[in-house]
Amino acid sequence: MKKAGFVIKQLVKMLSQAVILPLWYTLFRWQKTDERLVIFADAHNHSMPYSMKLIHERFEAEGYRICDMFSDYGRDSFLVTFKNMLAFTKTYARAKYVIICDYFLPASAPSVKKGTEVVQLWHACGIFKRFAYEAQDDIPKYYKCRVIKNYSLVTVSSPQCVPVYSRAMQLESGIVRSTGVSRTDIYFSESYREQCRRRLYEKYPEARGKKIALWAPTFRGNAAIPYLEGKEDVLKLRQELPEDWFLLIRLHPHFHDHDINCDISTEELLPVIDLLISDYSTVIFEYSLFLKPLVLFAPDYDVYGSKRGFYIDYKSLPGRIVTDKDELSKAILEEYKGFDREKMKEFRDKYMSDCDGRATDRIFRLLTTTERGEQIEK
User: Fold this and answer.
1) Do both 364 and 228 map to the same domain?
2) Would you call 3 exposed, middle or buried from its count of C-beta atoms within 10 A (0-12, 13-18, 19+)?
3) Is there a single domain that holds both residue 204 and residue 326?
């Protein structure tokens, strides 16, 4: 039933994208573009996604008019979703900038006016598992409309990522740029890191003085029908790890398991933890900025690898790979003791080279300067 519902939803989306939203946009495209109007839009959250926060603050500080349009199409009713799409499209017809950080159907529906800048910040760093047009779970083959269209700029974390994003998103040369990823700038602030420490110990005073491990897995399947692997095995760690360890669990936003899910965001946890346990999540790229131990718990590696596919050799990643659930606690202790800092540094330098604390400024200048040169000033 879930799969049938998913297909029906995709058909409705295609109808909206191919017919309704383009017609609606046409009614308002005569309006003059407001050079100071910036839309921040998302279809997966009712509040501003973390990936937009810093660039949002920068536009606001520079006196631009900001229009926030955040919805959760997966949870909202069809009527609410449809009304939100129409409202976005009407404003889209006169906005100079549209900032998104994930797939956002209304931005790709019409053929936009010349001069409108659609900026895809994306919500992840690096290149890991296949995505966009190279992943059936992301964009099914039967979906005939262009999910990715009208983009002026896609920001990525290093030059290594540019050709992969261009190919996966089927974009022309020059649209994907290695500016660094805005969301990572905050990690270079000592006051932010201290704020994260305070918040963690206020929430979990029993963690003070202990080594902190975080399990932050990705989801399998697609956003509409996600599933999780390894939950029970990780829960056992609380009994298996020594008493001087403290385990936190932070699930992907598509999961809502409040019984085990830490309500502190992953972005606030990364600066504080001593070791990360993940699987196929791109969180490992952001985490590499901290040069700390990593364990990759992948009990379904053979199935996932053959079905989804990777852009990089999984076995070349820094950190210890664990496929046997009975070896997990042992691997954590061994990785913490024998952490290869140099290998993590090489990984960071290769895939996160432009995440240096100044990405937001580069993105803002790139968007608001009259001419875009081939080189981005670092």
Assistant:
1) no
2) exposed
3) yes
**Residue span of the structural domain in which 125 resides:** 2-180+356-368
pLDDT in tens, 171-224: 999 999 999 999 999 999 999 999 999 999 999 999 999 999 999 988 665 555
Q: Dihedral of CA 7/154/291/245: which sign?
A: negative
* Gap between the Cα atoms of 60 and 237, Å rounded: 45
Residue 376 lies in a domain: no
Least confident of 3-7, 102-106, 157-161, 337-341: 3-7
Q: Is the distance from CB of 67 to CB of 37 less than 8 angstroms?
A: yes
Name every residue whose Cβ is closer than 8 Å to that of residue 255 and which is 6 or more positions away in sequence: 219, 226, 228, 261
pLDDT grade, residue 17 (50/70/90)?
confident
What is the mean predicted confidence (pLDDT) over 19-29?
A: 95
The verdict on residue 121 lying in a domain is: yes
260 and 336 belong to one structural domain: yes
Buried b (16+ CB within 10 A) or exposed e, 232-269: ebbeebeeebeeebbbbbbbbbbbeeeeeebebebbbb
Residue 283 falls within a domain, yes or no? yes
Residue entry with tokens 């131990």: 293
DSSP letters spanning 279-298:
SS-THHHHHGGG---EEEE-
Name the percent of the chain lying above pLDDT 70: 89
CATH of the domain at 44: 3.40.50.11820
Q: What is the DSSP string of 107-148?
A: HHSS-PPTT-EEEE--S--S--B--GGG-TTTS-TT--S-SS
Backbone phi and psi for residue 320, each to the nearest 5 degrees, phi listed first: -100, 130
83 and 26 assigned to the same domain: yes
* Co-location of 151 and 66 in the same domain: yes
pTM for the complete prediction?
0.90
Give the residue among 293, 268, 286, 255 at the shortest CA–CA distance from 124: 286
Q: Beta-carbon neighbour count of residue 376 at 10 Å?
A: 15
State the total domains in the chain: 2
Type of residue found at 325: K
